[in-house]
Each structure stands twice: as structure tokens, then as C-alpha cells.
Amino acid sequence: MTHLVDHNEDLRQQMVDRLLSQFETLENWLKFVDWLAPSFQEAENVAYDLSADRLLDTAEGEVLDQYGALLDEPRDDLDDDTYSRVLNSRILSNRSSGVLEFLLEITARLANTELARVIELFPAGVSTEYVVPSSLTAGMRARIVKLLDRATSAAIGIKVVEAVPGYFGFEGDPEALGFGEGVFATRIDDNG
């Protein structure tokens, strides 16, 4: 995870490195550094832990639940990693103006896959498709549809399709299998 604050795990060495060269060999200065460094290291560790525990990407447990309450997104029975993805996707859907890149990011995060695509359907529609190792739960499917619907404009129709590996497809899709071999994908939105 990326943190906004860098964590220095060895402040003593940094203090010694920053001593002017004429003081590096003086034993009293090194004793002073040895006396001072543990207090500063403890403050550094506490400050880092406080910042890291409060960021959405690194939060766990109760802190995630607080984010969920702010975003009006219930946890239900989701583990921390999945709930963090849901909350990040909710923020993206709140900020989205229906741009295809946002819809792709929301789909990929919620389905936890890199195999996702968004296709613009003329005149006012969007199809999002994703491939996952096994079918998602009904609750996660409902969240995907809800957040994608929220992320698009009111006049835009949305179609959401879930596929598992070995899905049926046509020429031009290297992952798809042809007639008699592939399994059909599932349309998970209410309009299908």
C-alpha cells in the first residue's frame, strides 16, 4: 500500500548520518544520539501508525466501518479487503460523471479482476463485462450493478455481464471459446 507519510525505521542512523563530520567521532555526541533517538523513534512509529491506520487503503475493522457509515455503504458479511474495494468503488461512483474509465475501474475493483472491459452502446448505453475465476455472490453482483448505475447518467442504460474462464465468444476475443466449447456468460443487471 502507498502511504502519504514515509516511515523511518532507523532514526538513530539518520541522526548519526546527519552529524557534521567533525562530531561523528566524538563519543559524547554519539551517546547523546543514543539517548535521544529512542524517544524520537517512538514518536515516529506512533505518528506513522496513526496516519496509516486512518487511510482508506490501509484501514481495517472498525475504521473501515466508520468509512462505510460516512459513505452509507453497509459492510454486510464482507472481509476487510473486499469491503475496502467496495468503499473505494463507492467513492469512484460518487465522483463519476459516467466516463468509461471510471466505469471500468469500478467494475475491475468490485469484481477483483484485471479482465474487465466497458463497451459504449449507441445511442445511450454501456456494457460492462468482466471475467472472474468463479461466479460472484448475489450480494456482490447487486453492489456492482448499483454502483455502476449510480456512476452513470440517468439516461444511460447499463448492461453488466459476468463470465467465468472458458466463456463462449467470437473471433477477435483470444480468451473466448467457440461453438460447442464455451460456457455462456451471465447478464447480472435487472434489465436482461
What does this structure look like?
By secondary structure, the protein is of the alpha+beta class. It has two domains: 11-54; 61-187, no CATH class. 46% of the residues lie in helices and 11% in strands. It contains six helices and four strands. It has helices spanning 11-18, 27-54, 61-71, 80-95, 100-111, 138-151, and strands spanning 116-121, 125-131, 157-163, 186-187. The protein has a four-stranded mixed β-sheet. Strand 1 (116-121) and strand 2 (125-131) form a beta hairpin. The longest helix is centred in the N-terminal third of the chain and has 28 residues, at 27-54. The mean pLDDT is 85.
What's the layout of helices and strands?
Layout: H1 11-18, H2 27-54, H3 61-71, H4 80-95, H5 100-111, E1 116-121, E2 125-131, H6 138-151, E3 157-163, E4 186-187
Parallel strand pairs: 2-3
Antiparallel strand pairs: 1-2, 3-4
Helix pairs in contact: 1-2, 3-4, 4-5, 4-6, 5-6
